[in-house]
């Protein structure tokens, strides 16, 4: 296949897959960028930022703007856009709630920069920087948690807790995490944990004595030329809110997660179940379409929209620029080559699923159990590949053996959460990466 034929085939395959996702009702629109080393990136945008207003009203009643953190109110948000509710075409300027891509676009690079600046070590105990964790449950075990454990999701901390029902601010979150029982032993299991990356955000703020959003702007976004990447986009003057893809209609999905947590606590006869039930009954959940404020409830309600685990907004073009930190030696943000290589390599032995530092590692070449657990990037990635996904419908996968990075941004939580994103994403990765030869292939 000639260069021009391959370019055309890749572009058409991206377009077909985005159209397929729309027709299946997974998302109303999306944008995909395929960046290959030494070649211009291929970007395809299809669909709109949201469905038609009458379809949303039929399913959910009238569409309201969300309550906002910060000074921006629902009424204020209308001044940023044209007031249309039927969505605009997705394009290169469309901003998406990146969800857990925050972990690898903010927390991970800042930790690595902190290490090479001598402010942190990957082997530091978490209690060295957050001594509050020694004041609660399982303090002896928590002293054994290192930054490496947090980054590889092997800390033994729970995956998620609805702390936003109880607390606001870092101090209160630290109190609750200190009181939380460990669910495992550091280094002995892989359990993807938002709590671990909340802690990394708190540690970074203390290491630099600077708020996390400002630190990310100063050390990553500004030097990398990421002009449409930020936390709290509604606080940025001149931003057109209509260019932000909306997320869920309220927080029904996370509300159900909190109910499931209650069912588990009641089944175990835990005394905490009564308070959780009371908190659930009186909590003021967001109503209407969420746009411009972070979808994640712990980030939004509990941590004022800024956290190491969620809260970032960005575009496809900015995400491609960010990934040059991991693909080019000419990036304005320099992570030590040894640290960079360490970060993208699996460190979880025979545990499944395979995790690098922050990143998910390709299961290719792993044990039968690891390959069966799979990875979100599909089945044809090389053993060198690494990536990450965001709950809202975002993803990055990089395969160094193919010299290719695939970035897909959608809002699959709009207006409700689609469970079809996983199979769709793996299929797209399989199709695109299989068209691109590895080094040395014909």
TrEMBL record:
- Alphabetical UniProt keywords: Hydrolase
Q: Which GO terms describe its molecular function?
A: hydrolase activity
Look up keyword Hydrolase and say if it applies. Answer: yes
UniProt biased composition (Basic and acidic residues): 77-86
| Domain (Beta-lactamase-related) ranges | 84-418
* InterPro entries in the record: Beta-lactam-related, Beta-lactam/transpept-like, Diverse_Enzym_Activities
- Residue ranges for the region (Disordered) are 49-86
Ranges annotated as biased composition (Polar residues): 67-76
Pfam families named in the record: Beta-lactamase
- Name the PANTHER family for this protein: BETA-LACTAMASE-RELATED, BETA-LACTAMASE-RELATED DOMAIN-CONTAINING PROTEIN
Designated name of the protein: Beta-lactamase
**Species of the source:** Brevibacillus borstelensis AK1
